[in-house]
Amino acid sequence: MVNEFKVKGKELLAKIEELIKEGNARRIIIKDDNGRTYLEIPVTIGVIGTFFAPVLAAVGALAALTANFTIQVINKDDTGNQDNQS
């Protein structure tokens, strides 16, 4: 399942930190208003900690570039397949 959130630049870093702490995201994708992908963050349990310090610094820098962002969150339970309904 993919969830999308629309956030202002100043709210971007706080929302990314919140999503990482929730722990149910497999991948976080940050896009601008035109749908261009700025950053894709793979979220794996074993890498939380020192890996995210530079990522969060990059997210903070992105917040200054554009006023509005769309955050796509791909959850861990998403296998990439759509449900087959018979």
- CATH second-level architecture: 2-Layer Sandwich
For the terminal residues, how far apart are their CA atoms? 20 Å
SS summary, helix count: 2
Beta-strand percentage? 25-35%
Q: Which percent bin holds the helix content?
A: 25-40%
Stated plainly, the CATH topology is called Dna Ligase, domain 1
The number of domains is 1
| Structure classification | alpha+beta
Identify low-pLDDT runs: 81-86
Helix and strand element order = EHEEHE
The strands making up the biggest β-sheet line up spatially as 1-4-2-3
What best-fitting shape do the alpha-carbon axes yield?
A: globular
Round the mean pLDDT to the nearest integer and report it: 79
Task: Characterize the largest beta sheet: strand count, sense, and whether it forms a barrel.
Answer: 4 strands, antiparallel
Q: Based on DSSP secondary structure assignment, what is the total number of beta strands?
A: 4
What are the salient characteristics of this protein?
2 helices; 27% helix; 4-stranded antiparallel β-sheet; Dna Ligase, domain 1; disordered C terminus; alpha+beta; 86 residues; 33% strand
